[in-house]
Structure formats: structure tokens, C-alpha cells
Amino acid sequence: MTREQGVWPSDLPQLVEPMASQLRFLLEADRLKSVIRGSRIADGSRRENSAEHSWHIALFALVLARHAVGRVDVLRVISMLLIHDLVEIDCGDTPLFDEAAAANQAAREAVAARRLVSLLPATQAAEFLALWHEFEAAVTTDARFAKSLDRLQPILLNHAVGGGT
Q1: Domains along the chain?
Q2: Which terminal CB of the chain, N or C, has fewer other CB atoms within 10 Å?
Q3: Are 67 and 149 in contact (CB under 8 A)?
Q4: With left for phi above 0 and alpha for psi between -120 and 50, is residue 40 left, alpha or beta?
Q5: How far apart are alpha carbons 98 and 113 in whole angstroms?
Q6: End-to-end CA distance of the chain
Q7: Exposure pattern of 71-96 as b/e (b: 16+ CB <10 Å)?
Q8: pLDDT per residue over 106-145, tens digit each?
Q9: In the structure, what pLDDT confidence band is assigned to residue 1 with cuts at 50, 70 and 90?
Q10: Other C-beta atoms within 10 Å of 140: how many?
Q11: How far apart are the C-alpha atoms of 121 and 133, rounded to whole Å?
Q12: How far apart are CA 9 and CA 13, in angstroms?
């Protein structure tokens, strides 16, 4: 067998381990479905979970990108939105109005972000952590747009259910 014909047996460890790490990360990310947020879904029947919130704000980015102040890279915005709430697996959701939890939120979430991305191969972990930090800092146009969508979605849901969350 030549290199052009396929993978050499000696190549398998370099191919398998990164994917195994990525699959472990994805299974860990599945835990986001169990984190219940304060916002109710638009029909008011129940509270949303953080995975639903992440999907919804990613869709917001796709739909509302043309309304951003300045040009945004939609894939980069969606990437930030999908990554930024993963810390809730370890920390839970911290509502904007919870001043006690907000006092140490940044420190708790930084620890969680490092733990979660450490499940990935090193290069990908560094990329994801950089996106998480960019979102948190909200300095770039992409991050400011992403953060604004993250703030808009709960307000829109609260309005849809007549308030009270």
C-alpha cells in the first residue's frame, strides 16, 4: 500500500486520538441540555435549557447579521455563541439580575472554560478558548454583535410570555 492509496497503520494513532478527544468534548457538551435557564420558551410552557438558548442565539446571528453595526463574520459570531455558554455545564446559568452570583462569575467561568476546552486537541482548544475570551471581552465587532444577541434573546422571550422571568 502506498501513501496515495490510503492511511498507513502507523498513522492511525495520530488520526484516532484527536477524534476521540473531540468526541469526548461533544459528549461533555451534551450536558448543556440539562442546564435550565430563567427564561421561558416563547409559548410560556416551560423554561428553556442552555443548549436551546445556544441554538436559538446562533439562529439569531444567521437571521439578523445584516442588522449588525459594522460588517461581521457570521461563522465567527455563531462559533462564539455556541462556545460561550458551555461554561454553564460547570457553573449553571447566571441571570443578569443575580448580583450575588455575578460577583465571582467571571472567575468561575474562566476555570470552566479552561476545563472544557482541555478535552479537545491542543490547537483546537486554544482556538475555542480564544473565541470564548473574545466573546467575554466584547471588543471586536463580531463579539459585540454576539453579545448583543445573547442579551436580546432573553428579552424577546420575556416579552413573548408577557414578562415575569
Answers
A1: 15-160 (1.10.3210.10)
A2: N
A3: no
A4: beta
A5: 21
A6: 63
A7: ebebebbbbbbbbbbbbbbbbebbee
A8: 999 999 999 999 999 999 999 999 999 999 999 999 999 9
A9: very low
A10: 17
A11: 18
A12: 8
